[in-house]
């Protein structure tokens, strides 16, 4: 895409805003390598997985009651495989006397170029400040990452998977010619 932009004298892309957090790491499959090879920054949205990484497992929060897409579609299908990660976030937060949100954001800051936080309350900014000041140990990073299990793709990538315009299918058909 940047080749096209450069060829036509348009500004080039410098960043990708992707869906990435401790309980949804599917972009590690291909996107991270692509971004690195093409000098593109990563600025993921949903760093706290719609609040799942900010509260102990099973806590009912307003967001989950109001955001039916997040609750049922985006994260609702993977509750069982996500729980060990959420429990580990809680354990590390308790050990350091910081918020769970700070732990999840501290992990994320080691993986991407910038954090995007949808702060709607002042204490959300407090968690961001905690995360900036806090660094996880290598063992803690490992403890957070080890329980991860692959997820089905979500959002636009899942929608495009079986369509004719899918990039992978396009490349396969081009190779046949």
TrEMBL record:
Name the record gives this protein: Oxidoreductase
Keywords: Oxidoreductase
Pfam families according to UniProt: Aldo_ket_red
Highest taxon in the source lineage: Bacteria
MF annotations from Gene Ontology: oxidoreductase activity
Entry's EC annotation: 1.-.-.-
Leading EC class: oxidoreductase
NADP-dependent oxidoreductase domain location: 4-145
InterPro entries recorded: AKR_Detox_Biosynth (IPR050523), NAD(P)_OxRdtase_dom_sf (IPR036812), NADP_OxRdtase_dom (IPR023210)
Native source organism of the sequence: Lactobacillus gasseri
Lineage: Bacteria, Bacillati, Bacillota, Bacilli, Lactobacillales
């Amino acid at each position: 895409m940047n080749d096209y932009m450069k060829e036509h004298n348009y500004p080039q892309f410098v960043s990708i805003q992707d869906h990435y957090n401790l309980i949804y790491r599917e972009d590690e499959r291909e996107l991270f390598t692509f971004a690195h090879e093409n000098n593109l920054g990563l600025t993921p949205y949903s760093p706290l997985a719609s609040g799942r990484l900010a509260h102990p497992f099973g806590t009912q929060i307003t967001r989950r009651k109001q955001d039916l897409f997040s609750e049922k579609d985006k994260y609702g299908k993977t509750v069982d495989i996500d729980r060990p990660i959420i429990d580990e976030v809680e354990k590390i937060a308790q050990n350091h006397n910081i918020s769970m949100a700070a732990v999840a954001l501290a992990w994320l800051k080691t993986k991407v170029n910038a954090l995007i936080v949808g702060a709607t309350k002042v204490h959300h900014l407090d968690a961001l400040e905690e995360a900036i000041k806090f660094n996880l140990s290598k063992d803690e990073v490992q403890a957070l990452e080890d329980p991860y299990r692959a997820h089905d793709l979500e959002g636009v990538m899942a929608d495009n998977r079986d369509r004719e315009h899918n990039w992978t299918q396009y490349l396969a058909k081009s190779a046949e010619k």
